[in-house]
Amino acid sequence: MLLRPLFLALSSQSTVRDIAVRSSLGRLMASRFVAGESLEDAIAAIRGVNALGMLASLDYLGENVEDEAAARAVRDEYLRLLDGIAEHGVRSNVSVKVTALGLDLGVELCLDNLEELCARASAGGNFIRLDMEGSDYTDATLEIYERLRERGIENVGVVLQSYLHRTEADARRLMDRWDGLSVRLCKGAYQEPREIAWQGMPEIRKSFIKTGELLSGDEAKARGVRLGIATHDPRLIRWGRGRYAERSIAGNTIEFQMLFGIRRDIQDGLAKDGIPLRIYIPYGDAWYPYFMRRLAERNENVMFVLRSLVDELQGGSTRVGRRGGRSGRQGAVGR
Ligand SMILES: Cc1cc2nc3c(=O)[nH]c(=O)nc-3n(C[C@H](O)[C@H](O)[C@H](O)COP(=O)(O)OP(=O)(O)OC[C@H]3O[C@@H](n4cnc5c(N)ncnc54)[C@H](O)[C@@H]3O)c2cc1C
Fold first, then answer.
1. Which of 232, 293, 298, 307, when mutated, tests ligand 1's pocket best, judged by the most ligand atoms within 8 Å of its CB?
2. Which atom of ligand 1 is nearest to 159's Cα?
3. What is the mean pLDDT of residues 327-332?
4. Looking at the domain that runs over 35-283, which CATH code has it been given?
5. What is the pLDDT of residues 94-105, one digit of tens each?
6. Helices marked H in 12-106 — which ranges?
7. Are strands 182-186 and 253-259 parallel, antiparallel or unpaired?
């Protein structure tokens, strides 16, 4: 796609970022994919998806932090977020990036932060998902998961990316070692070299299905594996629907997971059919790089944003997340 390199370059371009985050126009455009800047915006968005019969996973946007204080500030925001979810009685778990909790500064710091988050989540019957980042972090993220499990923590799960050659083996190893393994399976969002990752969609889909079948088969059922099928790809959704129909009767635990604001037609279809669906809802003031990555993914996303901009200008609203309206319903724009 022609615009992809442009948006990926813009995602790390600080001058453009400064202009975008200061302008109400930039924030308005981002509202297509980001719930808002504050925890209140995020809670409103969760309420909106819950009202549609969907669950949520809340992500406080941000990646690598520079110092310990910043990592602890991210942890504190997640603690507030877990309290907010419990207090408002909304149905959402949380997704965290290990680099935002200080992994680059030391595994122990990151582990301590996560242990505190898991304890708070556990008190409210909640769950922490470790997002998966670029391949430089795959080993460390899986190691952190296993070290948390070794400490007896069970309300934590991982993400595996089907574009990586290693993924099926990782799934097998984790399933063999840990009962109650919870995996979000996705294609993977980073630029990875061909030595370690499939580049073509047929291979990526094949790996997705193979790993997905492993994580929703008889053995997975016996080990209490929970699988999240995270994709908007109509072919994989078709496969997933079939797998869900067959294996949920057999006793496997499977849900679909999709991103806030993306393919709402498919989201509605799954919810209408009573298939469990969780919406990944990002929020926070670090929305700019996330927004640029979504624009880089597809030409259609640029069109959605431009169309919503026209709608919004006609309606006179300018706040990030505003289109969710009072109900916080994702989907007012571009349907
Ligand atoms: C809930 C969730 C959590 C994720 N967590 C992670 C993570 O932790 N780490 C990570 O690396 N990646 C993560 N991802 C991103 C993922 O790896 C992919 O980059 C992303 O989902 C795009 O792949 P896809 O299979 O959804 O669809 P694609 O391969 O992008 O597209 C396949 C088809 O889906 C449809 N489609 C997709 N997007 C759109 C759109 N915006 N508008 C219209 N049609 C569209 C089109 O028909 C397209 O042809 C996550 C994705 C989801 C859904």
1. 232
2. 8
3. 38
4. 3.20.20.220
5. 999 999 999 999
6. 14-22, 24-30, 39-51, 68-88
7. unpaired
